[in-house]
Design goal:
By secondary structure, this protein is an alpha/beta fold. It contains 16 helices and 19 strands. The strands form five sheets. It has a five-stranded antiparallel beta sheet, with helices on both faces. A five-stranded mixed beta sheet has the order 9-11-12-14-13, covered by helices on one side.
């Protein structure tokens, strides 16, 4: 009879128990690993959400690093962790994040016997660790350091652990956890880097959005300024135009015959409004050119005593009309200045006319002083003064101080803005001192030597608008007496080519009063017919003609042997940057922009006859 023993079965069951227990412990350890990583990821997600909502930057990354350290330290009781950030341009990393329970003065956390010569590495806050040592720690088995790196910034830091030596059963749960700790730290390092990368991407998008918002705000502000500029410009232009058109309609109205005195008064109003309108247009053009960096400076050595005296001569009439005294004080060492004489004169006239405008009695003065490498043009007055509130707005375009002593149509509100920008183009500035009831003092401070090369500058034959605009018609009677020839047969013949009938009539009447014969045509076809019959002494040519471009006409005249020697003076409304140079390049002798300065036209005509 065969007998069976149950002992082997019993023994096999006993032998299988440790294997089952080990498997269970491994599963528990793996569950511990996933739970730890899941908890860390949740903490990082909460941290990221909070940081992106508050739009934090550098401090946000610090919070992420500290979260990683704290969470890992809480689950690794047998180890301590820290993060060392890379020091720019150095071969060391500096420990920047340790568990919050570890203070600067607590005992150091030490990694022992893990690098060559059993070197001890401290994990104390602010301790420096050589990067070569960290790389050795990362290469050993198991590693004690992990790179925190991404594809964009490279290595940004290191995650480091300092293990505590434990006597453990090889199959214990804790020992298995120790074995998979490198997996935990490897994946934790990845989570940390991923969160940092996400934070930086969100921050980049937030900065981009802020930039777009700033751009939109600037565009909106620019649009508001543009609308304000157009509204102010429209208002300022319509004001003098209203006077011009109104009084002209009054003068030509049927049945209205004003007295000679009243007739002259209306004409004076029309002339004054026209000058105001011209000054406004010139200031707008100057300001626009300066803002667009398109204003060309004509540098030259300026005779300052002569320029200052000429400026005061132009202001003299207005000052005399108000019973004001004019004063000029020149430093004996002041002789010349390298500057744009036209623009310097424009700046001084703007300030002097303002001083006269706001002064009812007393004195308006110009004082020029030299101080080391700077020259000071001081315009002072004994006028009504300017409040501190208004001083802050003085140099804003269109800003005007309204006062009972000042007429509403005096000034354009652009003079001071243009003056300050012209001073800045000279490398200087404008300063103001004033007190209500005690006068004002404006100072133009310019460097004695400009940072530019001296160039030979052709003399600009175009009128200096600030001064000559005041005397467009003033010398008409006097000048006409010097040009009337003995008989009409001896009168020089001028061919006037102008398609605008009003401008043509104005020029024709003025030059005929001076004794010239005028052949008036309004297109190119008529001009060529006249030239076939006679050779004029001068051709006055408009550029914009209905049947042919004036620039093309000039080229044809210069290419034709018969007409090549005839002087050509262009009078045109082409007055933007470069227009004068374009006209002169085609071969004209002189250029004058509209509105026509009649005394200047007279001088240019007499120059060639």
């Amino acid at each position: 009879m065969q007998q069976y023993s149950s002992l082997p079965e019993s023994n096999s069951q006993v032998d299988a128990t440790p294997t089952v227990l080990t498997t269970m412990q491994q599963l528990q350890a793996e569950l511990w690993l996933e739970q730890s990583l899941s908890r860390l990821q949740n903490r990082l997600n909460d941290c990221l959400l909070s940081l992106t909502s508050n739009q934090q930057t550098v401090a946000g990354e610090a919070e992420i690093f500290q979260t990683v350290v704290n969470e890992l330290n809480s689950v690794l009781n047998h180890t301590k962790v820290a993060i060392a950030l890379v020091e720019p341009h150095k071969t060391v990393s500096k420990v920047s994040f340790v568990p919050t329970s570890t203070s600067r003065h607590s005992p150091s956390l030490v990694i022992e016997g893990t690098v060559k010569k059993k070197k001890k590495l401290c994990l104390r806050l602010a301790e420096e660790i050589d990067i070569n040592d960290l790389q050795l720690l990362a290469q050993q088995e198991p590693p004690s350091a992990w790179q925190l790196a991404n594809d964009i910034d490279g290595v940004i830091g290191w995650l480091i652990i300092a293990r505590t030596s434990l006597e453990c059963d090889a199959n214990s749960f804790k020992d298995i956890c120790v074995q998979i700790t490198p997996q935990l730290l490897t994946r934790a390092a990845q989570q940390c880097v991923t969160t940092i990368t996400q934070l930086r991407q969100v921050q980049s998008l937030q900065r981009h959005c802020q930039q777009l918002e700033t751009i939109n705000q600037e565009l909106e502000r620019t649009n508001q300024l543009k609308n304000q500029f157009l509204a102010n410009t429209s208002h300022e232009i319509r004001t003098p135009l209203s006077s011009i058109t109104g009084f002209i309609q009054l003068l030509i109205a049927q049945g209205y015959e004003p007295s000679k005195e009243r007739h002259q008064e209306y004409l004076n109003i029309i002339q004054s409004s026209s000058k105001h309108l011209l000054a406004l247009i010139n200031d707008i053009l100057d300001l626009s050119k300066i803002e667009a960096n398109q204003l060309e400076m004509q540098w030259e050595q300026v005779d300052l005593p002569t320029l200052c005296r000429n400026v005061l001569i132009l202001v003299k009439e207005k000052a005399n009309n108000k019973g004001l005294k004019l004063s000029l004080e020149l430093d004996s060492n002041v002789n010349t200045l390298f500057a744009d004489s036209l623009r310097l004169k424009q700046m001084l006239l703007n300030l002097l006319f303002n001083a006269v405008k706001f002064t009812t009695n007393g004195t308006v003065g110009l004082q020029v002083q030299l101080n080391n490498s700077w020259i000071y043009f001081i315009v002072w007055d004994t006028g009504i003064g300017i409040s501190q509130e208004h001083q802050a707005e003085l140099f804003q375009p269109y800003f005007q101080i309204y006062n009972s002593v000042v007429s509403r149509n005096e000034g354009t509100g652009l003079g001071l803005a243009v003056t300050r920008k012209l001073a800045e183009l000279h490398g200087g500035r404008v300063e103001v001192e004033s007190e209500l009831g005690r006068g004002s003092q404006f100072t133009i401070v310019l460097p004695l030597k400009q940072q530019c090369e001296t160039e030979e500058v052709e003399e600009d034959t175009e009128t200096e608008r600030c001064g000559d605009a005041e005397s467009v018609f003033d010398n008409f009677s006097a000048s006409s007496r010097h040009h009337v020839p003995a008989s009409s047969a001896d009168s020089p013949n001028i061919l006037l080519v102008e398609d605008d009938s009003d401008n043509a009539k104005l020029i024709q009447i003025y030059l005929q009063k001076l004794g010239y014969q005028i052949n008036l045509v309004n297109n190119a076809e008529q001009m060529w017919k006249i030239l076939d019959q006679q050779k004029p002494a001068i051709i006055l040519l408009d550029i914009k003609l209905p049947d042919e471009n004036g620039l093309v006409i000039i080229q044809k005249l210069r290419e034709h042997q018969q007409y090549r020697s005839i002087p050509i003076i262009v009078q045109t409304a082409m007055a933007m940057k470069g227009d004068r140079e374009i006209c002169l390049a085609t071969g004209v002798n002189e250029y004058i922009s509209k509105p026509i300065d009649l005394p200047l036209l007279e001088n240019l005509v007499s120059k060639y006859i």
